[in-house]
Amino acid sequence: MYKQRIDEYFERHRDEMIKDICRLINVKSVRGEPRSGMPFGEGPAAALDEALKIASELGFEPRNMDNYVGVVDLNGSATELTILSHLDVVHEGGGWTKEPFSACVENGKIFGRGASDDKGPSVAALYALAAAREIEPNLSKNARLVFGTAEETGSEDIAYYFGREKASPCTFSPDGDFPVINAEKGRYAPRFGASWPESADLPRIVSIKAGEAANAVPSEAAAVVEGLDFDTFEEYCDMFNEYSGAEFTLREEGNLITVTAKGKGAHAADPQKGNNALTAMIFLLSHTNFAPSESYKMICELNCLFPHGEFYGKGLGIEQKDEISGPLTLSLNVMDFSLTGFSARFDCRFPVSGTKESTADAASAVLKAKGIEITGNDNVTPPHYVPADSPFVRKLLTAYETYTGCKGKCIAVGGGTYVHEIEGGVAFGCTMPGADNHIHGSDEFVAIDDIVTGAKIFAQAILDICK
After folding, report:
1. In this structure, how many other beta carbons lie within 10 angstroms of the beta carbon of residue 307?
2. DSSP state of 275
3. 3-state secondary structure of 335
């Protein structure tokens, strides 16, 4: 019913929407130290300010809720649909060929951190609101777009919002894949570590550092070793380059050698799409002849617990899967290793049928047997599931089919979105089936045709739900 008018709207506003996506990418909205009036630091607050400026330029009257979230309403009626997007991003990591916080439009794509997670989809949803307002200015129900600022680091922003606003009958987040994500795996991402007395015996491992966020597979890892022959160690590195798929480089300073591993970043929900530089580093060091010590023994244990290239929890003995959501995935993503101990984090996404007992309790028991203790962030987020035949889901699938010509179906993912704890909420776009937009990796991008199609689908959904 609305397709022709929606197509016409986005034909007129296509270039404008692209420019506004670039405006947001250019703001480095990685979480920082809290400041007065900026609970998640300057970057997320600046991105929110810019997004609300764009909303104002489109004729809306947005509201800033204390720099936790921004709210844009379609009209003043009762809210039937809430769209939850976010403007914060993960650290850029390494391996970029573009500038991560300076948007680049090239070959029909927009490159930059947040292009597809989730600044591009946020702008697409905003323009969808504007399209719906122009096409049906007297809709009887309201659609509300909420811009979050801390989705990547715990979602305190959305908790703040729902502490002050009630949930609407329908909610979706444009922070996933099309057609509709109705099942999100559970998550367990604890801090863990161990300590031991320092050993002066050489050669030895002085330090290992890798990772910024638990939910991102690290593309780089660095270690410092002492007392090794440079030429011999270089031969080891050359041998393991091919086996691990990572690239090892060495730098010598006196009796110390710094070795850097470069892999490929990825979202922790899909660790198999990356090449974990940290596990590659542990693999290399565990196969190098260091002097016997508690430190070296731990490196060998970690290599067995988190084998390089294994993504399904076999090392921790928690491998599991089900028909709805597929297999458990696991990746070791953060580590700070020293002469006297280490702290680290892994990220586990477990299927709908999984439980705390089959994941967290089982993993903790295996770690404890190796002298490793869980030290924090040990909460388990249960899985989320919405029946595929709900009326809301059916409307979303119909909108998707209208603009893609493809059959809509429900899918399950390992990633968790804002709707994870919202009854009946689903993730809806904006990544098209089969696309790899390098989310959480280097050279993240969104295809312009895809993001415009996504905006059209959102506009159709808004009109169908709020008319």
Report:
1. 15
2. B
3. strand
Kindly report the pTM of this predicted structure: 0.77
Element (H, E) at 144: strand 142-148
What is the rounded (10 degree) CA torsion for 145, 150, 153, 154?
Answer: -70
| C-beta of residue 404 within 8 angstroms of C-beta of residue 456 | no
Find residue 345's DSSP bridge partners.
Answer: 191, 334
Report the interhelical angle of 391-404 vs 448-466 (nearest 10°): 140
Buried b (16+ CB within 10 A) or exposed e, 170-196: bbbbbbbbbbbbbbbbbbbbbbbbbee
> Prior bond to 203 cis, omega within 30?
yes
User: What is residue 372's three-state secondary structure?
Assistant: coil
Cβ atoms within 10 Å, residue 253: 8
Q: Give the CA count within 13 Å in the CB-facing half-sphere of 416.
A: 26
Encode the chain (467 residues) as per-residue pLDDT tens digits. Answer: 799 999 999 999 999 999 999 999 999 999 999 999 999 999 999 999 999 999 999 999 999 999 999 999 999 999 999 999 999 999 998 899 999 999 999 999 999 999 999 999 999 999 999 999 999 999 999 999 999 999 999 899 999 999 999 999 999 999 999 999 999 999 999 999 999 999 999 999 999 999 988 989 999 999 999 999 999 999 989 989 888 999 999 999 999 999 999 999 988 999 999 999 999 999 999 999 999 999 999 999 999 999 999 999 999 999 999 999 999 999 999 999 999 999 999 999 999 999 999 999 999 999 999 999 999 888 899 999 999 999 999 999 999 999 999 999 999 988 778 998 899 999 999 999 999 999 988 999 999 999 999 999 999 999 999 99
Q: How many Å apart are CA 308 and CA 279, to the nearest integer?
A: 5
Distance CA 139, CA 161 (A): 25
> SS3 of 232, please?
helix
- Gap between the Cα atoms of 119 and 115, Å rounded: 6
Phi, psi of 248 (to 5 degrees): -100, 135
Domains and CATH numbers, the chain: 3-185+383-466 (3.40.630.10), 188-381 (3.30.70.360)
| Chain mean position to CA 220 | 17
- Please report, as a single letter, which amino acid is at residue 11: E
Q: What is the CA radius of gyration of the chain?
A: 23
The answer to whether the beta carbons of residues 353 and 185 sit under 8 Å apart is no
Task: Write the burial class of residue 405 (CB in 10 Å: 0-12 exposed, 13-18 middle, 19+ buried).
Answer: exposed
Question: Rounded CA gap, 205 and 290, in Å?
Answer: 8
Q: Report in angstroms the alpha-carbon separations of 55 from 24, 59, 125.
A: 12, 7, 11
